[in-house]
Amino acid sequence: MFKSGNASYHVPASDTSKGCYKKKDAIWVIVDRLTKSAHFIPVRTNFSLDKLVELYIGEIVRLHVVLISIISNKDLRFTSRFWKKLQEVLGTKLNFSTAFHQQTDGQSERVIQVLEYMLRCCVVEFQGSWEKFLPLVEFSYNNSYQSSLKMMPYEALYRCKCRTPLYWTELRKSQIHRVDLVKKTEDKVKVIRDCLKASSDR
Protein backbone atom coordinates (compact mmCIF):
# COMPACT_ATOMS: atom_id res chain seq x y z
CA MET A 1 0.00 0.00 0.00
CA PHE A 2 1.21 3.52 -0.76
CA LYS A 3 2.60 4.77 2.53
CA SER A 4 4.78 7.61 1.31
CA GLY A 5 5.30 9.04 -2.11
CA ASN A 6 7.14 11.40 -4.36
CA ALA A 7 5.21 13.95 -6.42
CA SER A 8 6.78 15.65 -9.43
CA TYR A 9 5.72 17.29 -12.64
CA HIS A 10 6.91 16.16 -16.04
CA VAL A 11 6.17 17.96 -19.29
CA PRO A 12 6.32 15.61 -22.29
CA ALA A 13 8.69 16.93 -24.96
CA SER A 14 6.66 15.27 -27.71
CA ASP A 15 3.40 17.04 -26.90
CA THR A 16 2.22 19.45 -29.58
CA SER A 17 -0.85 20.62 -27.69
CA LYS A 18 0.93 22.91 -25.24
CA GLY A 19 -1.30 25.81 -24.37
CA CYS A 20 -4.40 24.16 -25.80
CA TYR A 21 -7.38 24.60 -23.46
CA LYS A 22 -8.71 21.03 -23.39
CA LYS A 23 -5.59 18.94 -23.96
CA LYS A 24 -3.25 17.99 -21.16
CA ASP A 25 0.33 19.24 -21.48
CA ALA A 26 2.03 17.65 -18.48
CA ILE A 27 2.13 14.50 -16.41
CA TRP A 28 1.94 14.48 -12.63
CA VAL A 29 4.20 11.62 -11.52
CA ILE A 30 3.51 10.16 -8.07
CA VAL A 31 5.77 7.30 -6.94
CA ASP A 32 5.51 5.13 -3.84
CA ARG A 33 8.95 5.03 -2.24
CA LEU A 34 8.47 1.52 -0.83
CA THR A 35 6.94 -0.46 -3.72
CA LYS A 36 8.26 1.78 -6.55
CA SER A 37 4.77 1.75 -8.07
CA ALA A 38 3.82 4.93 -9.89
CA HIS A 39 0.82 6.88 -11.06
CA PHE A 40 1.07 8.97 -14.24
CA ILE A 41 -1.73 11.52 -14.12
CA PRO A 42 -2.30 13.71 -17.20
CA VAL A 43 -2.70 17.36 -16.22
CA ARG A 44 -2.41 20.86 -17.64
CA THR A 45 0.39 23.06 -16.35
CA ASN A 46 -2.20 25.76 -15.63
CA PHE A 47 -4.38 23.54 -13.41
CA SER A 48 -5.33 25.30 -10.20
CA LEU A 49 -4.38 23.88 -6.83
CA ASP A 50 -8.06 23.02 -6.27
CA LYS A 51 -8.02 20.86 -9.41
CA LEU A 52 -4.78 19.15 -8.30
CA VAL A 53 -6.28 18.45 -4.87
CA GLU A 54 -9.34 16.95 -6.57
CA LEU A 55 -7.08 14.72 -8.70
CA TYR A 56 -4.93 13.82 -5.69
CA ILE A 57 -7.96 12.68 -3.70
CA GLY A 58 -9.51 10.90 -6.71
CA GLU A 59 -6.35 9.17 -7.94
CA ILE A 60 -4.22 8.64 -4.82
CA VAL A 61 -6.26 8.89 -1.61
CA ARG A 62 -9.16 6.92 -3.15
CA LEU A 63 -6.85 4.03 -4.07
CA HIS A 64 -4.19 4.14 -1.37
CA VAL A 65 -5.50 6.12 1.63
CA VAL A 66 -3.76 9.24 2.94
CA LEU A 67 0.02 9.16 2.55
CA ILE A 68 2.31 9.37 5.58
CA SER A 69 4.78 11.64 3.80
CA ILE A 70 5.35 13.26 0.43
CA ILE A 71 8.55 14.52 -1.16
CA SER A 72 7.61 17.10 -3.76
CA ASN A 73 9.39 19.40 -6.15
CA LYS A 74 9.09 23.11 -5.42
CA ASP A 75 6.26 23.88 -7.84
CA LEU A 76 4.41 26.92 -6.48
CA ARG A 77 1.22 24.92 -6.06
CA PHE A 78 2.97 22.46 -3.75
CA THR A 79 4.64 25.17 -1.68
CA SER A 80 1.42 27.16 -1.19
CA ARG A 81 -0.12 27.61 2.25
CA PHE A 82 -3.28 25.78 1.13
CA TRP A 83 -1.40 22.63 0.01
CA LYS A 84 0.72 22.67 3.18
CA LYS A 85 -2.39 23.13 5.35
CA LEU A 86 -4.23 20.34 3.50
CA GLN A 87 -1.34 17.93 4.10
CA GLU A 88 -1.15 19.02 7.75
CA VAL A 89 -4.89 18.34 8.21
CA LEU A 90 -4.50 14.95 6.49
CA GLY A 91 -1.52 14.17 8.73
CA THR A 92 0.93 13.91 5.84
CA LYS A 93 4.50 15.09 6.35
CA LEU A 94 5.50 17.34 3.43
CA ASN A 95 9.14 17.57 2.31
CA PHE A 96 10.67 19.26 -0.73
CA SER A 97 13.49 18.08 -2.96
CA THR A 98 16.34 20.48 -3.63
CA ALA A 99 19.04 20.77 -6.27
CA PHE A 100 21.73 19.96 -3.71
CA HIS A 101 19.93 16.97 -2.20
CA GLN A 102 18.79 15.00 -5.25
CA GLN A 103 18.77 11.81 -3.19
CA THR A 104 15.56 13.08 -1.60
CA ASP A 105 13.77 12.66 -4.89
CA GLY A 106 16.11 10.63 -7.10
CA GLN A 107 13.49 7.92 -7.40
CA SER A 108 10.99 10.25 -9.08
CA GLU A 109 13.71 11.61 -11.34
CA ARG A 110 14.54 8.08 -12.51
CA VAL A 111 10.87 7.26 -13.10
CA ILE A 112 10.49 10.50 -15.09
CA GLN A 113 13.53 9.56 -17.22
CA VAL A 114 12.00 6.15 -17.96
CA LEU A 115 8.61 7.77 -18.70
CA GLU A 116 10.20 10.32 -21.06
CA TYR A 117 12.04 7.56 -22.91
CA MET A 118 8.91 5.42 -23.17
CA LEU A 119 6.84 8.34 -24.51
CA ARG A 120 9.52 9.30 -27.04
CA CYS A 121 9.81 5.68 -28.13
CA CYS A 122 6.03 5.37 -28.52
CA VAL A 123 5.32 8.79 -30.07
CA VAL A 124 4.87 7.38 -33.59
CA GLU A 125 2.73 4.52 -32.31
CA PHE A 126 0.54 6.88 -30.25
CA GLN A 127 0.11 9.34 -33.15
CA GLY A 128 0.00 12.38 -30.88
CA SER A 129 -2.55 10.96 -28.43
CA TRP A 130 -0.18 10.11 -25.55
CA GLU A 131 -2.85 10.99 -22.98
CA LYS A 132 -5.16 8.24 -24.25
CA PHE A 133 -2.48 5.57 -23.82
CA LEU A 134 -0.96 6.84 -20.57
CA PRO A 135 -2.91 4.27 -18.48
CA LEU A 136 -1.24 1.49 -20.53
CA VAL A 137 2.16 3.12 -20.00
CA GLU A 138 1.48 3.27 -16.25
CA PHE A 139 0.32 -0.36 -16.22
CA SER A 140 3.37 -1.52 -18.19
CA TYR A 141 5.75 0.39 -15.93
CA ASN A 142 4.17 -1.01 -12.75
CA ASN A 143 4.07 -4.53 -14.18
CA SER A 144 7.76 -4.60 -15.16
CA TYR A 145 10.59 -6.16 -13.16
CA GLN A 146 12.56 -3.73 -10.96
CA SER A 147 16.02 -4.97 -10.03
CA SER A 148 16.07 -2.92 -6.80
CA LEU A 149 12.87 -4.68 -5.66
CA LYS A 150 13.64 -8.04 -7.27
CA MET A 151 10.00 -8.05 -8.35
CA MET A 152 7.43 -5.88 -10.13
CA PRO A 153 5.99 -2.80 -8.38
CA TYR A 154 2.47 -4.25 -8.68
CA GLU A 155 3.71 -7.47 -7.11
CA ALA A 156 5.14 -5.48 -4.18
CA LEU A 157 1.95 -3.41 -3.89
CA TYR A 158 -0.66 -6.16 -4.28
CA ARG A 159 1.45 -9.12 -3.10
CA CYS A 160 0.66 -11.11 -6.23
CA LYS A 161 1.57 -11.08 -9.92
CA CYS A 162 -0.80 -9.19 -12.18
CA ARG A 163 -1.98 -10.51 -15.52
CA THR A 164 -1.45 -8.20 -18.44
CA PRO A 165 -3.64 -7.51 -21.47
CA LEU A 166 -1.13 -9.67 -23.39
CA TYR A 167 -2.87 -12.71 -21.90
CA TRP A 168 -6.31 -11.76 -23.15
CA THR A 169 -5.78 -13.87 -26.26
CA GLU A 170 -5.74 -16.95 -24.03
CA LEU A 171 -9.51 -16.53 -23.80
CA ARG A 172 -11.62 -18.01 -26.54
CA LYS A 173 -12.75 -15.38 -29.04
CA SER A 174 -16.37 -16.06 -28.15
CA GLN A 175 -15.63 -14.76 -24.64
CA ILE A 176 -14.26 -11.46 -25.93
CA HIS A 177 -16.83 -8.92 -27.07
CA ARG A 178 -14.54 -6.36 -28.68
CA VAL A 179 -11.79 -8.42 -30.32
CA ASP A 180 -10.52 -5.36 -32.23
CA LEU A 181 -10.15 -3.34 -29.01
CA VAL A 182 -8.33 -6.22 -27.30
CA LYS A 183 -5.96 -6.58 -30.27
CA LYS A 184 -5.20 -2.84 -30.33
CA THR A 185 -4.58 -2.84 -26.57
CA GLU A 186 -2.29 -5.87 -26.82
CA ASP A 187 -0.34 -4.21 -29.64
CA LYS A 188 0.09 -0.98 -27.65
CA VAL A 189 1.21 -2.85 -24.53
CA LYS A 190 3.79 -4.79 -26.59
CA VAL A 191 5.21 -1.53 -28.01
CA ILE A 192 5.29 0.10 -24.57
CA ARG A 193 6.92 -2.96 -23.03
CA ASP A 194 9.62 -2.98 -25.74
CA CYS A 195 10.27 0.71 -25.05
CA LEU A 196 10.47 0.04 -21.32
CA LYS A 197 12.94 -2.79 -21.90
CA ALA A 198 15.04 -0.56 -24.16
CA SER A 199 15.01 2.12 -21.46
CA SER A 200 16.19 -0.27 -18.76
CA ASP A 201 18.91 -1.64 -21.07
CA ARG A 202 20.39 1.86 -21.54
From TrEMBL:
User: Where does the Integrase catalytic domain lie?
Assistant: 1-161
Q: Name the domain of life.
A: Eukaryota
From which residue to which does any coiled coil extend? none
PROSITE patterns noted in UniProt: INTEGRASE
Q: Which GO terms describe its molecular function?
A: nucleic acid binding
> Some GO term, biological process aspect, for this entry: which one?
DNA integration
| InterPro entries with a match to the protein in the record | Integrase_cat-core, RNaseH-like_sf, RNaseH_sf
Q: What protein name does the entry list? A: Integrase catalytic domain-containing protein
The scientific name of the source species is Gossypium darwinii (Darwin's cotton)
